[in-house]
Design goal:
single chain; 103 residues; mainly beta; UDP N-Acetylglucosamine Acyltransferase, domain 1; four-stranded parallel beta sheet; 0% helix; 30% strand; globular
Length: 103
């Protein structure tokens, strides 16, 4: 991981199995690029953030989604599922209640 290319803002939530290394192998060489996660942003489980991607302050990226190189989620915007993620949603992933327990 290229840690000098990764920025994570205060109070951001990055869920397990998220993948962002700030580099990728391509045609026999390594490409590097920044990944920026803003203040109070949310990155869902099993997401992939390619190089040169960003989530703005308060932005959210849903479960099992990806951002391709050059994609950005603007401040306070929620993007649902998809690869690449495109579908805007009103779901607040930070406050989705847990499922009811089975009897």
């Amino acid at each position: 991981m290229c840690t000098d290319l990764l920025t994570i803002g205060d109070h951001a939530v990055v869920r397990k199995e998220s993948y962002f290394t700030c580099y990728r192998a391509r045609a026999g060489y390594i490409e590097t690029g920044p990944v920026s996660i803003g203040k109070d942003a949310y990155v869902g489980e099993m997401t992939v953030l390619d190089i040169d991607t960003s989530l703005g302050n308060g932005a959210q990226l849903g479960h099992s989604s990806s951002l391709y190189a050059g994609q950005a989620v603007p401040d306070e915007e929620n993007i649902g599922r998809g690869s690449p993620a495109r579908e805007r949603t009103r779901v607040d992933y930070r406050s989705v209640p847990p499922p009811a327990a089975a009897p």
